[in-house]
Structures are given as C-alpha cells and as structure tokens.
C-alpha cells in the first residue's frame, strides 16, 4: 500500500500538491519502510545478543554479530524496495500485493525447486552447445539473481573473515552489487511507470 494505497484513497493527489516530486514520494516510501523493517530486525538481534553478553560461557564476537545484523537489514531493504516498486507501478493494491508476494515466494521458499532441475540437468550433461555459458556459470548466475542467494554469499564470506579478501572475491563483489541493484532498480522502474500515470 506504500504508493498504490494512497492513490486509491486519494491522499496521493494531496501529497503531490505539496512541493514533492513523484521521485520524492517513491524514495521517501522506500526509506521510511526500510527504517520500519530495519528497526524490528535490530531489536530481534539485540535481545539474543544480551543473552550472549550475560552468559559468560558463550563466546561472542560483537563485530561479526553487528555486521550480520546489518547485512540482514540490507536484505530486508531489498525486499522492501521490490514491494515499493510493485506498489508504485501497480494500478491496484491487489496487483501490488500479488507481485510483491509472488516475488518473495519465488525467491525464498520456491527458489530451490526452481534450481533443482537445472542443477540436475547441468550436473548430468553440462550446458547445451547453443548456450554461450557453461553449466556452472548458469548456476552461479541463478544464485546471484536471487537477493537471498547474494545475501548468503556476502554474509558467509563476512562471517568467515574473508569478505573481499579471501575465497571467490569476484562472486562476493557481484553478490554485493546484485543486492544494491535490488535496492535501487525496482523503485526506479516503478517510478518510470508512475511518472507516466495520470492520477
């Protein structure tokens, strides 16, 4: 309901009659809702951290814990951006909800089912001759397309103490860039659609 809900209620016309551009509205919604999702993530991670600090038998690396919390918030912001992008481009709340929830279900619970036949196919015989990529490259690309896959690559490297310094550095950089793309591109695409709409 970030944008389309206000459009349906008529409050968007009032908001845009003030000195705000449509870009201000869209990115303001992204920032506001990102804060709304980051706050409970921070609280949710803070409570176990207090237990770790109080119980002396548990080894606790505060810097790693804080970094992982921040990366989790970044993943949350990526999904907020996707939802706001749909809300900006959609003509009704139903369509915005269907698009945002559909993308979430595709990327989180269903992505393994999407990848499984491809992993099996490429593992059994490699890539077809007409494909300019190897099977491994296709699987790497599929892993990077998904924001949760990019998050796992970056967070695992961070927790192992080798982010951008050890392991597959190119993959880590690509995963970071993909997360930034998921944060920036959906609202921009929604804004391009929204700019042409007559309210």
Topology, element by element:
Layout: H1 4-9, H2 11-17, H3 22-54, H4 62-89, H5 93-107, H6 111-125, H7 135-145, H8 147-159, H9 169-196
Number of helices: 9
Mean pLDDT: 86
Strand coverage percent: under 5%
Which class best fits the helix and strand makeup? Answer: mainly alpha
How far apart the termini lie comes to 16 Å
| Order of secondary-structure elements | HHHHHHHHH
Radius of gyration, taken over Cα atoms and rounded to an integer in Å: 20 Å
The portion of residues assigned to helices is over 70%
The coarse overall form would be: flat
Stretches where pLDDT is under 50 for at least 5 consecutive residues are none
* Biggest beta sheet attributes: none
User: What's the count of strands?
Assistant: 0
3D architecture notes:
The chain has helices at 4-9, 11-17, 22-54, 62-89, 93-107, 111-125, 135-145, 147-159, 169-196. The protein is mostly helical and 199 residues long. α4 packs antiparallel against α5, α4 (62-89) packs parallel to α9 (169-196) and α6 packs antiparallel against α7.
Could you list some keywords that capture this structure?
single chain; 199 residues; mainly alpha; 78% helix
Short description:
With 199 residues, this protein is mostly helical.
